[in-house]
Amino acid sequence: MDKIKKKATSNIFVTYFILFASIFLVTFVVLGTSLIFMVDSYSVNQKTELLQENTRELASSISKVLIINDMNSAYSAEKENICSSLEVVSNCIDSDVFVCNTEGKIILCKEQTGIRPYYSSSMVCDEHNNMVMSDRLIQNVYENGTAVETITINGKSCYVVGTAVVTPSYVTGKDSGTIIGSVFAVVESKTAEIVTSIIKMFTFVALICLGIGFLMIWLLTKRMVTPLQQMSTAAKRFAVGDFSYRVKVEGNDELADLGYAFNDMADALDKLESSRRSFVANVSHELKTPMTSIAGFIDGMLDGTIPSEKHEYYLKIVSDEVRRLSRLVVAMLNMSKMESGDFEMKQKNYNISDQIIHILLTFEQNIDKKHIEILGLENMKPHRVYADPDMIYQVIYNLFDNAVKFTNEGGYIAINADEEDGMIKISIKNSGEGINSEELPHLFERFYKVDKSRSLDASGAGLGLYIVKMMVEMNGGKIVARSDSSTTAQFIFTLPRA
Question: Cα(447)–Cα(469) distance, rounded to whole angstroms?
Answer without folding.
Answer: 13
